[in-house]
């Protein structure tokens, strides 16, 4: 289990570094996910600049928790996160979105339409 206050401090530090890089133009202001961020910078560089424990299960869990929080904050900065709720042909519903959701409504709708085409049923979006 990760220490929530410690995780939040690390996420704050990484978000501050991201904002600095956005200020210099290295990263676009509308970056909305870690995957997208990684297109512009090596995200691992941010992790190397904060004092994380290494080589143990707790360290791995902390990195994942920090990454999820950063992804959530980046998505929220673009109006998200949005979750895609798929209604299966049998009427049951299932959240098919990423854990942190999608940053924009358009991205979530595209995922929903793609899933609908392949699997049938229906979908709706839910803002987290």
Report on this model:
A hairpin with a 5-residue loop joins strand 1 (82-87) and strand 2 (93-95). The two termini are 23 Å apart. The model has no long low-confidence stretch (mean pLDDT 83). The protein is mostly helical. It has a three-stranded antiparallel beta sheet with strand order 2-1-3, with helices on one face. It has five helices and three strands; from the N terminus they run H-H-H-H-E-E-H-E. It folds into two domains: 4-76, no CATH class; 82-127.
Features:
3-stranded antiparallel beta sheet; 128 residues; 51% helix
Write the layout of secondary structure elements.
Layout lengths: L3 H20 L10 H4 L5 H6 L8 H20 L5 E6 L5 E3 L9 H15 L2 E6 L1
Helix pairs in contact: 1-4
What's this entry about, in short?
The chain has 128 residues and is mainly alpha-helical.
What is the number of beta strands? 3
**Beta-strand content estimate:** 5-15%
Specify Rg, calculated over alpha carbons. Answer: 17 Å
- What class do helices, strands and sheet pairing give? mainly alpha
Q: What ranges have pLDDT less than 50 throughout 5 or more consecutive residues?
A: none
Q: Count of DSSP helices?
A: 5
Count of discrete structural domains: 2
Overall outline: globular
How would you state the average pLDDT, rounded? Answer: 83
Share of residues in helices: 40-55%
End-to-end gap: 23 Å
Strands of the widest sheet, in order across it, are 2-1-3
Main pleated sheet: 3 strands, antiparallel
Secondary-structure element order, as H and E? HHHHEEHE
